[in-house]
Amino acid sequence: MVDAVVVVNWLDSLQDSLAPYPGAYLALMLSALVIAAALANWVTKRILLRGLRRLLARLPGADSGRGSNVMRVISRLSNVVPSQVIASGITYVPDLPGGLVAFIVAACQAWAILTVSMALSHALDAANDLYERRPDARNKPIKGYLQVAKIVIFAIAGLAIVATLAGVELRYLVTGLGAATAVLMLIFQDTILSLVASVQISGDGRIRLGDWIEMPSQNADGDVIDIALHTVTVQNFDKTITTIPTKKLVTESFKNWRGMQESGGRRIKRALFLDQHSVGFMDAEARARVGQFALLADYLHEKEAELDQWNAQLRAQGAGEINSRRVTNLGTFRAYVERYLRSHAGINTDMTLLVRQLQPTTEGLPLELYCFTRSVAWAEYESVQSDVFDHLLAILPAFGLRVFQASSDAMLMDARARSADVGRLAAPEQPSTPPATPAPGML
Question: Which has more confidence, 43 or 63?
């Protein structure tokens, strides 16, 4: 208390000594106030924060980055110190208009409110970083909720700043805004819809970080890399980035491939288009040839036994040989494909496996393979699928079958060969003539 009296007396004597110089004491006091604020800022940033940073660096888990998030919050709060020095010291500067002093004090308080709100925003970011380290964080992201909290914080901060600068109490300002609720809802309708969508997405788990989604209406086909309040960010497979409004994921349809990834198998649904002209019965020589395949040994044996029993009953009834059943190359090939898929190491035999004929079209007879690979990885899936169809296309001629394609010249070559054979058979034989006897003079 005695020291304060001494300081006041010293300031009064200084003011009296500078009275002959108008404005000198005012300038001196303002300069001293600015220097005090700068000194307070320097002490806070250079000494206190640096010491605190070194202290946090020695704590366990500092390498994980948690200390840096805390330092961002404290660094933002340290900006309040110089403003409060100015707000406290400006009242001691004489000869300043009362309105100016009130405005400077209000501005310093508004700056403090803004600084605290930004520090809270950084604190929420730190909380989100800490939450994302949990194993189940990708299933229940909280980033959207934290963004809503940020909006609320900044909205309250904005109202408080306006109330401080206007010199009114905050509760009166909030009451006056009640009439403008409809206007505010119209302004923030996208935020409200996005909030509802975020709650639905987070609640039912329809989208999680890392999911592969496909949404043609938004040109999105890739992995989800971020889920925020207003947008969901997707990195497409061509490495482009697509941002989808969160509300679109509730109001529009999209495909999530997570179920495929979690099922343990990825579907192959692809057809071989066969030339129907190449389908026919197999004679004994053809059956013996394909019977050398280990996959068909049991099939042909069982099939021939079944057909022999059937045909014997027909002969006993006096039916002609034309009524007998015979083995077809297409049916044998279909049995081979099914057995080949079940023996393939890359095919998941615990899931649905079908080899079926579809409705014939002008492009041929589709023989569709419906099965699942063991690996859901894109590269391995494509490798297994290509390996299967490479083998089937190469082995088709062994069954007397051909694939159908519009630009194929196989039928044209067969037609030319048949035409050449017909031409040779239809051409009249030329009479053979004895070789001419050379003239005596030419020997």
Answer: 43
The separation between CA 12 and the C-alpha centre of its own chain, rounded to angstroms, equals: 71
Q: What is the pLDDT of residue 271?
A: 94
Give the DSSP letter string of 107-148: HHHHHHHHHHHHHHHHHHHHHHHHHTTSTTTTTS--HHHHHH
H-run or E-run covering 361 = none
What pLDDT digit, counting tens, does each position of 336-382 carry?
Answer: 999 999 999 999 999 999 999 999 998 899 999 999 999 888 889 99
pLDDT category of residue 415 using cuts at 50, 70 and 90: low
Task: Scan for tokens 């194993």, then name that residue.
Answer: 135
pLDDT digits (tens, 9 = 90+) for 139-178: 677 777 787 788 888 888 888 888 888 777 777 666 666 6
Whether the predicted model's global pTM rises above the 0.70 cut? no
Distance CA 66, CA 60 (A): 10
Burial of 370 (0-12, 13-18, 19+ CB in 10 A): middle
What is the rounded distance in angstroms from the CA atom of residue 47 to the CA atom of residue 129?
28
Amino acid identity of 387?
D
User: Are 110 and 84 spatial neighbours (Cβ–Cβ below 8 Å)?
Assistant: no
434: which 2 tokens? 């004895």
Q: Quote the tokens at residue 75.
A: 């660094």
Burial of 372 (0-12, 13-18, 19+ CB in 10 A): buried
CA distance 197 to 319: 72
pLDDT band at 425 (very low <50, low <70, confident <90, very high): very low
Return the beta strands (E) in 151-265 as ranges. Answer: 212-215, 220-227, 231-236, 241-245, 255-256
408 has a pLDDT exceeding 90: no
Q: Which residues contact 52 (CB under 8 A, 6 or more apart)?
A: 71, 74
Angle at 382 between CA 401 and CA 356, to 5 degrees: 40
The answer to whether residues 84 and 113 touch, using CB atoms and an 8 Å cutoff, is no
CB-based contact 285:378 (threshold 8 Å): no
Q: Which letter does DSSP use for residue 242 in this model?
A: E
